[in-house]
From TrEMBL:
The keyword Transmembrane helix applies. InterPro entries: CDP-OH_P_trans, CDP-OH_PTrfase_TM_dom. One of its GO terms (biological process) is phospholipid biosynthetic process. The lineage of its organism: Bacteria, Pseudomonadati, Pseudomonadota, Gammaproteobacteria, Kangiellales. It comes from the Bacteria. The keyword Zinc does not apply. The chain crosses the membrane at residues 21-48, 54-76, 115-138, 150-169, 175-192. GO terms for cellular component: membrane. This is CDP-alcohol phosphatidyltransferase. Keywords: Membrane, Transmembrane, Transmembrane helix. GO terms for molecular function: phosphotransferase activity, for other substituted phosphate groups.
Amino acid sequence: MISVYQLKPKFQQMLRPLTNGLAKAGVTANQVTVFAMLLSIATGGVILWKQSLLWFYLLPAVLFLRMALNAIDGMLAREHNQKSKLGAYLNELGDVVSDVALLLPLFILPSVSPWLVGAFIFMAMLVEFVGVVAPMVGKERQYQGPMGKSDRALVLGLLGIILPLWPIVVEYLNYGLVVLVALSVFTMVNRIKVAL
């Protein structure tokens, strides 16, 4: 199933010189992971605090930076001998915490069902959970789409551009959330099937 995640190898190749420079400077994978998580929490917090669609413009830039940081921490761990058990925990927890922090601002949107926002956030966590469970049944960590972490980032980034420009889109967002929840359920089932 097509997913933005499939672009990751080319993205990593572009970031490799920067990653090598960070490694030489003594920056660790865990530091990058924690920074990405704190950045996401701060961004979600600012949007919730300001309660304005204009602040959704932060999302595209922050989500792009977060995806870059996620790629960098992985390369630091794999290519610069920084793998650790703590890093594995931070990586998975950081992703889920960051997703929730950046999705929470959807609750402030007028006319949008909080139940659908909650369902999307819940499914985002479940999708990542079933991906992490795969090694327990003898398979690799699963990343299939169509609504994995990278795909959610793309959708949220697009919303960050569209909503401030065309606030009328909010009136139709419930329909979009139904589709996103359905795609998340499909992604969860897809990952389970592959792992089995």
